[in-house]
């Protein structure tokens, strides 16, 4: 049976699940993203993510459970997206369905994403949803793939 995948606005209780998912060792390894301590995580989410009205933030819900998040934000003149799913939701088509639904609601194009080069699952997910690789960028020591949907590089 296929799982029910829905998007909804973030509620405060979701932040506990998001924090746990950010601290999953395999997710950290794949994303090349250092997890934040609890207070820093909560402050970041409440002020920078949820506190910025220019951001579009959704919780991914699978069969009634908080599975992760998808966010669109501005970096200078570029609109970026990012997402994080709990490991239990990987490899089941949930990311594709959630991101497809998110892209139907997020009108900005072009959209950019820059997953770690070694995060092949994330790169594949973005490509399935129409993003195209335009090159690579570096974040510190790590190489990331720059992908774009719907427009210039």
From TrEMBL:
The lineage of its organism: Bacteria, Bacillati, Actinomycetota, Actinomycetes, Kitasatosporales. PANTHER family: ACETYLTRANSFERASE-RELATED, N-ACETYLTRANSFERASE DOMAIN-CONTAINING PROTEIN. This is GNAT family N-acetyltransferase. It comes from the Bacteria. Residues 5-152 form the N-acetyltransferase domain. It holds the Pfam family Acetyltransf_3.
